[in-house]
Amino acid sequence: MQLIYFDEAKHDAEYPHYHLGGVCIDESHLLEIVGRVADIARKAFGTRELTRNTELHAADIVHRKANFKNWKDFDARVILLALFMEVLSLEQVQLIEIRINCAQLHDSQSPEEIGFMFLCERANDLVMAQKSLGMLIGDRESDHLADHFARTLAGYRAQGTDFAFGRDIHNLVDSVHFTQSHLSRLLQLADVYTWLLQFMHRRRGSTDLRHKAIWELINRAEINLFPKKYKVWPAPPSTALA
């Protein structure tokens, strides 16, 4: 069984893209990866305990929010990002990237729904290629959204996905499971990966010294954030087929 933990990076007026990031981990490696992320929490907070006060989110780390509001040393905060990147680069952690170019959508199209559809397709492809089954686990921010996505996956499993070249979804089992991120180190890992996705797209070429420091970490030889499965939709005009 493969467990796929996923998170989103919402688009805003200044950045018209919607990102979903997924980390796929085989059940045989779960304890190892949870332990690696728990060790990051221990480095940050002196304990591996799972509480709201030991929750790790990339935006909080970088921008000194929530549990990191008193962390004045940027270098110390960047070290935590580097440790996350090392975990994300492990062979046991398979990555899924979805990017929806919202400026190219019609008014009736929802980036969240389209992004979730492509996540289901790519996650299904990934686990099917390994002759395995998968289960999706997301961050419960909204009971309404959680219920909607659960029903959506049920529909995909029954009838396939929605577009003209839709896929059969037979290797994702059960429902979409949601839990609060402070209760899951692996959801926190998905959060950091998704934040890095939007950072790498949004801040490419930035001359800001802090952005450059994060880029230096991403560009280290031992860091590999390339996804196993990805979807960018609609394709940018420069790469779209005629």
Q: How many domains, in number, for the residues?
A: 1
CATH class, named Alpha Beta
CATH fold field value: Nucleotidyltransferase, domain 5
Topology pattern, helix = H, strand = E:
EEHHHEHEHEHHE
Protein structure class: alpha/beta
| Form type | globular
The major β-sheet equals: 6 strands, mixed
Please count the helical segments. 7
Gyration radius over CA: 18 Å
Second rung of CATH, namely the architecture: 2-Layer Sandwich
**Beta strands, count:** 6
Strand order of the largest sheet: 5-4-1-2-3-6
Corresponding CATH superfamily: Ribonuclease H-like superfamily/Ribonuclease H
Runs in which pLDDT lies below 50 for 5 or more consecutive residues are: none
What's the rounded overall pLDDT mean?
92
Quaternary structure state of the chains depicted? single chain
Strand content: 15-25%
For the terminal residues, how far apart are their CA atoms?
40 Å
Helix content: 40-55%
Short description:
By secondary structure, this protein is of the alpha/beta class.
Folded structure, characterized:
- The structure is a single chain.
- The protein has helices at residues 30-45, 58-63, 74-88, 111-129, 143-159, 185-202, 209-218, and strands at residues 2-9, 17-26, 94-101, 134-139, 177-179, 229-233.
- It is of the alpha/beta class.
- The chain has a single domain (2-233), classed as Nucleotidyltransferase, domain 5.
- Strands 5-4-1-2-3-6 form a six-stranded mixed sheet, sandwiched between helices.
- The radius of gyration is 18 Å and the shape is globular.
